[in-house]
Structures are given as C-alpha cells and as structure tokens.
Amino acid sequence: MMPQSLGVIGGKPNSAHYFIGYVGEELIYLDPHTTQPAVEPSDSGCLPDESFHCQHPPCRMSIAELDPSIAVGFFCNTEADFNDWCQQIKKVCI
Q1: Which residues pair with 43 in a beta bridge?
Q2: In what helix (H) or strand (E) does residue 81 lie, and over which residues does it extend?
Q3: What pTM did the predictor assign?
Q4: pLDDT per residue over 11-21, tens digit each?
Q5: Domain locations in the chain?
C-alpha cells in the first residue's frame, strides 16, 4: 500500500463510489455524494465526535461489476513524499 494513496473513484454506470479497500473479490466503498458539516472547534476546544464517523456504513460490490473508467487519487505532502511515490510507481509499472 502506498502511503500517498487517497483511494479510487469509480463505480457502475449511473452510480459513483469511493473505494477505500477490498476483501477477496469484493470492493469496499463509501458514497462520495454524502456530505457532512465542517468541523468547528468550540470555545472549550471540543470537537463533535459524530462528524468523524460515516453516516452510512461502507458497502461492498464485486470487482467484476466495476466499470473500467476509474480515477486514482494520490496526495504528496512534501517533495520527499513525491520522490517516494515516484519510486513506488516505478516498481509497480516496470
């Protein structure tokens, strides 16, 4: 697993999913259309815990059902992160 990986967006025709993992031949996904309010700390410094949890549990689908049009997301916080990502991609692709 690449630490820079943010996940994969894809799905089935007329249905988008945010894939966060897999078990065997099944993909685990969340609905990317679900929104939650931004977290604003209170004067006491407390954060509302419920905003860090999914409103709906993750779902599963067979990898065979996946539409081939997907997007893979990565985030590199530093130049060193980017260089590490480049090395990992080279290992996978070559």
Answers
A1: none
A2: helix 79-93
A3: 0.69
A4: 888 888 999 88
A5: 5-93
